[in-house]
Fold each of these.
Amino acid sequence: MKTIPVETTINGDSAEFLCHADESLLDVLRDRLGLTGAKEGCGTGDCGACSVMLNGRVVCSCLVLGVEAQGAEVETIEGMANGEELHPLQRIFLEEAALQCGVCTPGILVAAKALLEKNPDPTDTELRYWLAGNLCRCTGYDKIIKAVQTAAAEMRSA
């Protein structure tokens, strides 16, 4: 099968790769670019484990073709930290044990960051609605909601 050249921006850096026309963005990120943070939980866009930002929108990368990243801006969990300094969401998820197995965590963090960029002071209802596309099979959601609210408060006061 013929490969297609793609030029894009990933986590603020220019990136070029070759991919097949039917190859998902998730597979490109993981297998071609070594960005393994996004996980394949379901492959059908139902769990959110593969969530990334594409041109400012949260998308399930298992449902987006790699060629659709042409000229786009992609943000993954790998771009969330500032070097060795974790993003407040990442740090507080660890401090408050808002994760267990870690499969869903990257997608939840990407989605939560997107929400807090749009609404730095969400209600619990808004937060639960925003994260409804991200399924967690281990922790339940109370610790996740609390961690996002704690991070939001810290980010507002910073």
Amino acid sequence: MARRKLQKRAFNDIDRGTFGGLIFTARRLHGLTQAEVAKAIGRDRPWLSDVETGKITFVPEDDIQALAQTLDLDARQLTTARDGAQSRLGTATVGGRWRRACQSCGHLNPDDANYCSNCGTRLPTSVECDACGRINDSLANFCTQCGRAFRNLSSP
């Protein structure tokens, strides 16, 4: 059998998925390494790396609680991302249609919704990059001008 040569992916080419993207972004915003977060939640660094890169898509509830506490995230939002995550930060597909997760309660809403159907919070249509000021689509993971990762969808 031929050996498969491993190719390292470029940083921006990694499709982290919704759940992995939330964990990765929060960890970076807190200035923590994967090893520090993994130790804080009782896991090893390779496990956390696999979660952040989307190789592990199901995370047990006790790990979600520990991640939420360590990274100052909403456990319900993490659970929603874990259960419905497909490819974009704050979004998921349900029945083949894109859905946006409300940043207040984590409820999944149709991609064309203006307000969360669960809590009534206004859903943003765009997000401004903190680094360069460029206005990007609210479903974007990274700024199209400078490449900076977005923490979350902020209210307009």
Amino acid sequence: MKKLDDYSGDFMPDLKPSDFSYEALEKLIKIYAQLYKALDGFWYLTLMERSGNDEALTCDIMVWEKLCLYEMNKLSKGFNIRGKDVKSMMKAFQLSPWAWNIKSNFELINDNHVIWKVLHCPTVNALEREGRGRENDICNNVEIRLNKLYASFFNPDIQVNCLKTPPRESDQDYYCRWEFKL
């Protein structure tokens, strides 16, 4: 049977992932990651409109603190990631839907030391366009807390050092850089 590259043809009531080509599945993963990002943005902005940015930020932190542990648990179990080192954390982190929305690279110094550089972040782009400075709260408050929580899921002794966050000096500058070290 030919693999589907798109789904513009007949309705298939028993549609399965195996019916799609590799390229179509890759596209589907990217779309799901974009939906994940959009849901985060829509609920945050809706809460901000109703209750103000301080309440939205507080709720954002509470939700992500729960979600990141749930996410790491699901990904670790689903992909049999069992290590307690930084490399294991990065394996699971790369599988996160959020990671599919950004462009980044990982410099693996050793299994217990990684530098993570974010080269493109659509969230920061949107916040910079907004022009209210909210990227400072998100990047310098929420992301620091969540990266520490992601790390502690694997090993509470993993140190998370924020090496750079916005504001960026130019459009060519890294969005952020992080060091994870055990």
